[in-house]
Amino acid sequence: MDVEKVGRMAKDRKIDLVILGLLAHENLTGYDIKKRIDGAISFFWKGSFGSIYPALSEMEKQGLVKRKNSNKTGGREKIVYQISKSGKDALKQWLNDEQATNDLKYETLLKTYFGGLEDRSITLRNIEVFEKQVKGNLELLNFYKENLEKVLEEADHVHYYLTVLFGIETYEAYLRWCNKAKKIMKEH
Amino acid sequence: MDVEKVGRMAKDRKIDLVILGLLAHENLTGYDIKKRIDGAISFFWKGSFGSIYPALSEMEKQGLVKRKNSNKTGGREKIVYQISKSGKDALKQWLNDEQATNDLKYETLLKTYFGGLEDRSITLRNIEVFEKQVKGNLELLNFYKENLEKVLEEADHVHYYLTVLFGIETYEAYLRWCNKAKKIMKEH
DNA sequence: ACGATATATATCAAAACGATATATAAGAGC
DNA sequence: GCTCTTATATATCGTTTTGATATATATCGT
Fold first, then answer.
1. Do residue A82 and residue A117 come from a single domain?
2. Is residue A148 predicted with pLDDT exceeding 70?
3. In chain A, which residues have their Cβ closer than 8 Å to the Cβ of B155?
């Protein structure tokens, strides 16, 4: 007999969490959301109109957000969105989920940014999970580094070596941040 | 009169450069390419089969790569690709182009990785361009940081503060790398 | 001989990117 | 007052990428 096929879940849209996180603090238009993302968040997350507006209208259908007001009379229309109860629930569920894609887009950072919605222990735990991942990657990079140092004289290898150094330098910075962040979270 | 509309260039596929860069060193199958990307490159670049195979067949049409051999008799077919003269030219042109998208995917790192094809001065210059970008971002982040320190007691602001600290920590690491990399490139 | 894993190509829906179109409001400069 | 530029704001479109799955063969351990 076959294993039950689940297919793809309808929650692969990462932009949803960004939008919900921002709306959890204040009511915003799609344009506002874009501005917020282009601000402090842009160092670890991106988002374009082409993903924001479709996400908003679909989340509206799903009941995760609702229109606060739609000023259509006089002047350019302006749709202000507000997060709903179920939207806040979805956001909290994501925050509490230990899994995070820390490949290039740092989901942990996003969770930290929106961490104010949950207990500090949640942010703390998310940082610790991230820290473990980073330590694993750092080990691997150091292994690469040692191997490359043996053949550094050969053509091209200096270039590979430099990129590995980049990885080590940044992952070490991540670990330093983990320590700082944990300390700040504990002290407050 | 209107400014001439150019439309979108047919070279938005970043994966092409990754593939060409890898093929510049050795002939590879699509599967091999995926393995290479998942290796040392994965710390700053990603790629999936869904982008690699279509890119390969389109680049073949464009004459940037060609089939070395296509073993179809006996066993699973295996298509080994080889870079062409025009493919190498395209790669070199990209390496020499100062512009680089260093948002989340680090094009400068990719250029450093494949830098062996051109003079060391090219890699050096690309690093310097990157360094300038990083310095600009770091300034901005420090501005954010100072502003946040004034309101750190308010709700949520510790969480925003932590993400800014992350940015600063990593960008400082990038600058450290720039110095190391420049030194290594100059010394050799 | 069997089962698991590695090799290898290919495709698909969903998501994201990046650019452009459209429209209004606000200011700046003349 | 008029025009030009910039900021606000929504929306869409083609292209690219992701992530998952389908398919098939080879290899290796037990």
1. no
2. yes
3. 116
